[in-house]
Structure formats: structure tokens, C-alpha cells
Batch of 2 targets.
Target 1
Amino acid sequence: MAENVRDRVAAFWDAQAVDFDDEPDHGLSARLVRLAWMARLRSWLPAPRAEVVDLGCGTGTLSVLLAGEGYGLRGVDLSAQMVRVARAKAATAGVDVEFQQGDAADPPVAPASVDVVLARHLLWTLPDPHRTLATWTRLLRPGGTLVLIEGRWDQPDGTTDEGDPDLEAALPWLDGVGAATLAAALAPLVEAFAVHDLSDDPQLWGRAVHDERFALVARAS
């Protein structure tokens, strides 16, 4: 990742860390939202005890949730402040999660070392998402699972509202990525995949949403 873009992205998320969990689908503080995410994750992931790396883990909410279910968790995030909050959250919950500051596009994870790669709302922050997808698939053990939770938030017409030409040039999926685009990018890299629509389940988001939100769940060869 180009240093200036990486620094801008890290600074953006550092500034968001304090109140990031105020969003219902970020902090999962509401019981129904938390249960909705757990039900979805159980349906996509292998059985507990599987080793999961949560890339772009943010404040660690999904990592802590899965660790509480018996999964082995590592979390990686570019933002030092997000990692700080995530570590405190895991300590409060009494679960063992290894959180590490690092670039999710090139994470400090050995090839073929995990059963699951999980990333939520992350691809829009990456300068080379196609290269990153190839990197992520190589982290999986044979038959491993890649879970990408993505969308084009608040932009159903496909337009961007960022208004920053430099960032738009550096981050090709800055305004999010649609399911068809992501599926086309990932298809050559995996054995099989399925797309799950998440737009019609308000419990996941703590409110009704009207934009494109989905999970792409793939199996490595």
C-alpha cells in the first residue's frame, strides 16, 4: 500500500475508534443484532475450534464474538487505536484473541495457516483489491473458508459521495463493491462460492437498509 494512502486510511480509522461501536452493527451491543450476526456467522463458518483471522478487525467485535463461541481468533487492523480498543474489549469479555496492528492487504499471517479469513467492510479501503484477494486466498488451508461481508452503502445508484479525487484514484472500490463485481474478481481464485443477500435483514444492521449489502462465502481449493 502506498505510504501516503495507508497513512491517511490509518489516521481516518484512528479518529473513528472512540465512537465506532455506537453504530448498532459495529458494537453489537443490542442482543438481537448480536444474535443475528452470530446466526449468520455460524451458517458460514466451519465448526468452532477452527482458526480464524479477522482482517480489518476494527474494534474487534466479531473477533470477540467468535472467540466466545470457541473459535481460535487473530485480528489484524491498520489502526493502532482500533487495536487498542479491541484488546480492551477482549479483556473485558474474558476471551483470548491475538490482536495485531498491521496492513490487512498484506497481513502478518503465514500462507496456508488458517481455516477462515474473515473481512467485513474492508475492500473499499485497499489500493489493489484484486491482488489482496489473491493474497487472502493463499492464507487458507486446503478447503478453508473466505467470508467477505461487503456492499455499496447508501449508494444504490453506484455513485460515490467521498468527493476526494486523489483517494478515488488510489482506492478503486472507494464507494464500495457490488456482489457481481466481487464475484467476478474472486471466481478464478477459489473452488466455489455463494453470495448471500444481507440487505433484507434489518436485525443485522439495527435498522432497515436500502442499499446493497451481502456476504460472499467462498471455499478454497
Target 2
Amino acid sequence: MSEAKRIRGGALLARALQEKGVEHVFTLSGGFCNPALEGFMECQMKVINCPHEQIAGHFADGHTRITRKPAVCLVGPEGFANAVPAMMEAWGERSPVIFVTGSSTLKRQGSGGFKEIDDVAIAAPLTKYSASITDGDRINEFVDRAYKIATNGYPGAVHLSLPVDLMFSSFPEDAGRQERPFDLTSQAPSRAWPDPSRLETVLKKLEAASRPVLIGGHGVWWSCAEADLEEAGRTLGIPVFNIPYHQKLLGEESEAYMGLADVHQYHPSADAFNESDLVLMVGARLDNQMNFGNAPLFPDTTELVCINGSHEEIDFNRAADFTLLSDPSAFLKALIALSDSPNFNDDRSWYNLNRKRRGEWVTKMLADVAEDANAPEFGGRIHPLQLAMDVQQAMGDEDWLVIDGGNTHFLVGNCS
């Protein structure tokens, strides 16, 4: 009986990631990453070499957000600290990036190895899962665990630390294959189905409401439910707002889309929230951008209901008047079905009022931009909002605009 072929730990890592369907790796190549890079080459995976580890991390994050498929950021021990800012950004935006960092040798741990640092502890508060692979035979296991944690429940970045002696050492190519799960290919994330009685409670609240509002957040994007959000708003006549994160769920062409849920950047949202009697917040968190659920953003007279696809988010949204654990798509489909109910009230006065306010706001903003551009004191300088509109006018459906800075983000978001 012939002995099983042996390959380096880096190659095992590459094969494990390819088996999960990972297609893109962002890195600063060389040094301690070479065994993994050789493995990626053998697997014919796309490797994007970057001039800096922080850039590699941000590229992996951006690619993951756009494609909704986890990408990998691979850095060596010397570049771990440079990748930390990207971890923080991915964590804040619920982006399931897989960060893999080479670390000082396991054999001499604690003895002052090259760039030795407790990378697992540093990454822990910035990721859903941070662990060191301590046995080459368990590389498949750690990749499987990290991938499932990243993509299930509340999506988010994960971190695996692979000591360089394991990266370069050789192991049987079938290492770890003798244990379950034998099938390590990627599987669709588990989705939470709403409890029927609690779902019925929310639907009855909506039937009784005369001025409801829908607010969509990250969970809608990761559930691929933006079309459901648009249909629910349009079919039921509910104004739809987008939490001002770095993902816009609906475009300006959507009839139901009213603007950002930000009273500073989009003033009509203040009127909508203040006058509403029910806010359905789907796939979002009651964080600082939502004033933690408090007045004056959401007055005491408004009932606040949060619908989230994971217990993590439900626990976070403790300030809500009512919560429902449900995949956003499943909940929104239940809303759409409500239009067939005999109790459904098709009065569109509230919906049309918000559409009217939206139109008036757009008209005013365009007039303000033109006035500012022609003002003598500005010397004919272009208004930032005009710049945002002009840039996007030249873009096609397959083009992506990469920007930085909060003000620029909000200006682009308000006109895209």
C-alpha cells in the first residue's frame, strides 16, 4: 500500500479554501506566505498582489461586499498589524472576509520568534472568530469552522493564524479527512424561520398601522432580499428607507425608496419617523446611527419593531418594543403575501405623502446645487453633490465607485 502524498501546510490551506468556493485572495506576496501562494497557484485561484497589507485587507473586504462571497486576505507575521484596520472595517460592515495571517513558529512560541505577537487576542474583538491552527492535520477543520461562522447568523470577518512552521511543514494531503464532516464543500448559510405566533403579531401590528415605515439594513443585503424589500414597500404602500451604511439596497429608480434613514443628510426622513406609528426595522441594528432606538429619531409615540436573522442582532436590539427572529427574505415575503389578506388596507395617502416629500427634496437640492455653483463668492466652483452626480452619470451597471470619507459617502449615497 503506497503512502499518501504529502503536501505543505500552505497547500492544505489553499485546497481547503478552494473547496469552500473561495475564488479571490488578496495579499502582499513573499516570505512566510509562499507555501500558501504556491498552493493557490496549484488550485488556479486568483491571487491579487497588493503594495501593502492594509490595502489587501480593504480590497478583500470590498470584493466580499460586492460579490457577497467571502474573499481571503493573506498576510505574513510582519504584516499582521497592517491588516488590523481592514479587520475593523469589515467587522463594522458585516463583511465575511477570511483573514489568514502567518504567525511566529508554534514550536518556539513565547521565545521571541520573528515578529511574535498575540495576533489571536488582538483580532478577537474585531472578528466573529479568531483562532490559531495548532495542528497541521486540523487545517481543514479550522477552515471549515471559520467559513461557517463567517457566513452564518450575523455575517462577519474571521481570523485564522497559521504558524509558519506548520505553513512550511508537510502533511498527508488527506489530513483530517477521516472525521466528519466528510463533505467540506460550501453550503448555503442557515436561515432563521420566523415563529408563526410572533410573525402573526407583527403582521397584525402592520394591519392596524396607518403610517408604517420600513427601514432596511445590512441583513437585507446578506440575505439577497433587496428585491423583496422593494416589492414589499411598493405592493403594500410602505415608504422604504435605507440605513446610511456603506451598502445601498435600492436605487433611485425604485418607486418605494424614499432615501437614507438619516435626518441630517435626508431631512424628509425626520418627518417620516416623527409622524409614523410603526417602524419595521429589517436586518439592522439600533446603533449610534439609529440613535440607539431613542427619541427624537424615533418618538415615544412610534412602535419600534426589529426583525433580524440572528440571535446576535436580536440581543443587540434589546431597546426595540418588539423583536422577531427571522431571515429578512422570509419576513419580507410574508409581508408581500399580506396584500392578499382581506384585512389589508390599501390606503396610499401616507405612501404618496412621502413620495411627494421625496420629489420636493430632490427638486430643492438640485436648485441649491445650481445656485451654489453660480454664486459669485464660490467663483463657479463645482458643488460636491454635483460632482457625485456627474461621476455616477458616466458609470455603467458593471462599474463600481470606490470612495473614502463620510461626507463623500453620504453625498454619493443620496444621488445614486
